Amino acid sequence: MPASHLRRPSDAVTGHPGAGVSIGEVLRGLTEDFPRVSASKIRFLEEKGLISPQRTRAGYRKYTVHDVERLRFVLSLQRDQYLPLKVIKDYVDAIDRGERPESLPGGLTLSPRVVSDQLSRELSARSRSMSAETLAAEAGAPLRLIEDLVSFGLISAVENRFDEHALKVAVACLQLEAHGIEPRHLRPFRAAADRELGLVERAVAPAASRRDVASKARAAETAREISELCLDLHGALVHGHIARMDS
């Protein structure tokens, strides 16, 4: 993803930091990089406290440079990092309080009220696709391991290209292999992930089945929250058993 994805939506916004533009102008500036964004999605993010546009006397929203930068930041992290809105909101709220949180999950940082070039580079790295050879090189793993991970269903390619999630799986499996745990031993993880996904899909099915964008956005965010809770539960159960090994 080139640095141009951080363009502001119009000269009306860039010309004066305090100037405001309509939601239609914001959409025209965002749709090239976020084709599925809509007015309903932006209003949903406002409802969740991610942005707070000004209002005219007639009640129309007006978006400033800061609002647009926050929108791009939130949309980028949702798309490329799959972070829950709560995690993103906690971070930008800390920035607004004058704090300096070191990083978001994944190591991204954000300067106060500015979407940085570093963010562009990091998001670009996370959204790229890789060949099997590149994936092996990035993970520091032999190509044989990548082939085994594909064979046992732990990673999969789309048109022979792998994403950043495959890289995370490869790195974790390489480290597990050092403990004698091979890909063939890890097939239950794939089955467990599929069962968890089914559980999440059933939980959000009523909202996901609606056609309006706001409902779909809520369903996606709820799915992220449920998956995070499932991961917390899994970690607590495993760590609880391990803790008893010392007792």
Automatic annotation (TrEMBL):
Record keywords: DNA-binding
One Pfam family per UniProt: MerR_1
Domain of life, per lineage: Bacteria
Matches recorded under CDD domains: HTH_MerR-like
GO MF annotation, one: DNA-binding transcription factor activity
Residue ranges of domain HTH merR-type in the record: 37-94
PANTHER family: HTH MERR-TYPE DOMAIN-CONTAINING PROTEIN (PTHR30204:SF89), REDOX-CYCLING DRUG-SENSING TRANSCRIPTIONAL ACTIVATOR SOXR (PTHR30204)
Protein name, UniProt field: MerR family transcriptional regulator
Record organism: Arthrobacter echini
